[in-house]
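Homework help thread (please don't just give me the answer)

Our assignment gives two proteins as sequence + C-alpha cell strings and asks us to describe the second one. The first is just a warm-up. Here they are:
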Amino acid sequence: MEFKKSFLDRYSSLTDIEEFKEYCSMELRKSIRVNTLKISVKDFLKRTKLNLEKIKWCDEGFFVKERVTLGNLNDHFLGHFYVQEAASMLPPLALDIKEKILDMCAAPGSKTGQIASMMKNKGLIIANDYDYKRLKALTLNLQRLGVMNTVITNMKGYFIKENFDSILLDAPCSGTGTIRKSPGTVRIYNPNMIRKLCADQKGLINNAFKILNKGGSLVYSTCSLEPEENEGVIDFLLNRYDDAKIEKIKFKGLKTSSAILDFEGKKYNEEIKKSVRIWPQDNDTEGFFVCKIRKM
C-alpha cells in the first residue's frame, strides 16, 4: 500500500509509523455480532459451522477464522448475525441504556441494531441520518434484525430538538482508521477535508449536548485517527460547556493507546486522557476513538 508523504509525516508524530503501516497493509479480520433479538449466542454457536474466535470486549462478537462470503449464509438472511467490524462494537457498549435513546448518525444501522439488542427491543430508539440515500440500508438492516423499537428520521443532526437521556454520536469522519478495509482513504486524504469534517462534527456534538438531559450521557465516536476529529472535538465541547464531564470507559480485554493531548501546537484538555483511542496495531482491528461525556 502506498501512503502520501504528507500522511506519513503527520502520523509519524502520533504512533509507531512502521507498525502502523504493517497492520494497515494486512487484510482486516472479518467479524460478526450475534443478534440476540432472534437467537441466543449459545444456540447460534450450536447451529453455525463457522470457525469462530471470541471477541474479548463484546459477548456477542466473534472473529471469523475462515474465508467465506458471510452475506450468502442462511443465518445472515435470517438475521441471526450482523457483519460488523470488531472495533465498531465498542461505542454502544459505552452507552447508558435508557428508555429513549438517540442514534444521531445511524445509517447503515450496525450500532442501532446493537443498541436495540441491548434494550431487548424495549423502550424507544430514534435512528436519525441526514443522507436520504442511506436510509434504505438502515431500514433493510433493522428489518432483517427484527428491530421493533426504532423510529427512523431524516434530518441533519444539529436540527434535532427533542431531549434524550442517552445519545450516540458516531460522527461522519475521514475514516483514517479504516484503511485496511478502504485503502482509497489514503489516496483522497487531504487536510482541507479534515477541517470541513471537524466543523460538521463540532456542530453535531454541540447540538447533541444541548438536547441531552441533565444527568444524561453522550457517547462520541469516530473511525478516524485524526486528533482534530477526536480529541479536538471533545476539547471544543469541554471549553464550551462547564457541565460537560468525561467519564472513563473500561472495555474488557481491549488494548488502548494514550489520547493525543498535544498536537501541532494545540494543547487539549487533560480530562481527554479518559477517552479511548485504539490504533489498528493495538488489537488487530480498525482504528477507533470513543469518548463518554456526562451532563452534570
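The one we have to describe:
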Amino acid sequence: MRARSTKLKQDKKSLSKAPAKRAKRMPHAERREQILTQAAEFFSEYGLTGQTRSLAAACGISQRLLYRFFPTKAALLAEVYARTILGPFEGEWFGDLTNRDKSMETRLIEFYSDYYEKLLTRRWLRLFLYSALAEGDMAPNYISSIITKLLDTIVDEAALELKISPPENPDFKRELGWTLHGAISHLAIRRHIYHGPHKIPHTDMIKVYVQTFLAGLPITTKHGAD
C-alpha cells in the first residue's frame, strides 16, 4: 500500500495558496479532540510520514499551536495509536469468547461480526498497514498486547469444546488461530483497501470461516504434536 504522496503535495499546494485564517478559539479539550480526530484521518490517508505542518493546516491552526498540545510527532502518534488502534477493541470481548453457555461457533461468529464492524474499518486498516510498512510500533504492539491473547483464547476454548488437546507449542497454537483471524482480517482488507466485490455479505463469510476453522481444528492440532 502506497501513501497518497501526489494528493498530499496537491493538498499542501492548495493550503499554501489559501489566505491565512485566524484559528477559531476553542476550549483546550475541544481543540485537542479536534486535532486527534483530524490526525487519525490524516495519517490514515497519507501515512505516518505525513508532516505535522500539513496536519496543522488541515486543522486550521498553526504548527506551533499543534505542538502546544503534542510536543513531538511521536507523542501525537502514540495518542493516535491508543485512541484509534487500541481504543475500538472492547475488553468485554474476551469475556464473551469464554462464555461457555454458548457454543464456540456462536461465540466466534458473534465476536468476529462485532470485531469486523466496529474495528476493521477503512481508517483502522489503513493506519495499521501504514504503521507496519513504516516499521512503526503500532502494529507490533497491537499484536503483542491484544492479538496474541486473542489467538490463545480462541484455540484453547475451541479445543476444550471439541475435547481435544491444544498444541503445546505456543507458536504453533497461535498460527492455528491466525488461520481464522487472518482470513477475516483479509476479508476486510479486500473490501476496504482493495475495493473488492461485496456480493456476499461479510456475515455469511464470517460464518464460513468459523465453521471451516472448527471443522479442521481436530486435524490441524495433530500436526503440532508430530
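TA reply:
I won't write it for you, but here's a hint about the kind of observation we're looking for: The chain has two domains: 5-82, 88-225.
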